[in-house]
């Protein structure tokens, strides 16, 4: 796991970030906002980390999924209220405000998707 800049993953990260911002700014409800956004966010995290770290795909997938699940489960404990950030729009967007099982499914599917794509397209030799 060494530091190594990867232009392809960096560009993918930027494109997905722009898509995520567009979704957040234009859509307030619906499948795209709530489910597809969660699907994309783990892909964004994976690609962002992969753009600066040379790490095994399976290890990175597990790390990203654990982070996503941890953030989702923290929503059960009203993390925003604890830190008095409920009214902060950015904190609500990044940390989320409510726990949903469907979010966990979206995270798992997004992580599985990017892992399969990475394994099929990379020349990674474990």
3D architecture notes:
The chain has a two-stranded antiparallel ribbon. Helices cover 71% and strands 3% of the residues. The chain contains 6 helices and 2 strands; from the N terminus they run E-H-H-E-H-H-H-H. The longest helix is centred in the last third of the chain and has 21 residues, at 101-121. Helix 2 packs across helix 3 (57-74) and helix 2 packs across helix 6. By secondary structure, the protein is mainly alpha-helical. It is globular.
Total strand segments: 2
* Beta-strand content bin: under 5%
Overall 3D shape: globular
Low-confidence stretches: none
From the helix content, strand content and strand pairing, which structural class follows?
Answer: mainly alpha
Helices and strands, in N-to-C order? EHHEHHHH
Total number of helical segments? Answer: 6
Lateral arrangement of strands in the main beta sheet: 1-2
| Radius of gyration using CA atoms only | 15 Å
The largest pleated sheet is described as: 2 strands, antiparallel
> Could you tell me how far the N terminus lies from the C terminus, measured between alpha carbons in angstroms?
12 Å
Average pLDDT score: 90
Share of helix among residues? over 70%
What would the keywords be for this entry?
about 130 residues, mainly alpha, two-stranded antiparallel sheet, 6 helices, 2 strands, about 5% strand
Summarize this structure briefly.
With 126 residues, the chain is mainly alpha-helical. 71% of the residues lie in helices and 3% in strands. Helix 2 (31-50) crosses helix 3 (57-74) and helix 2 (31-50) crosses helix 6 (101-121).
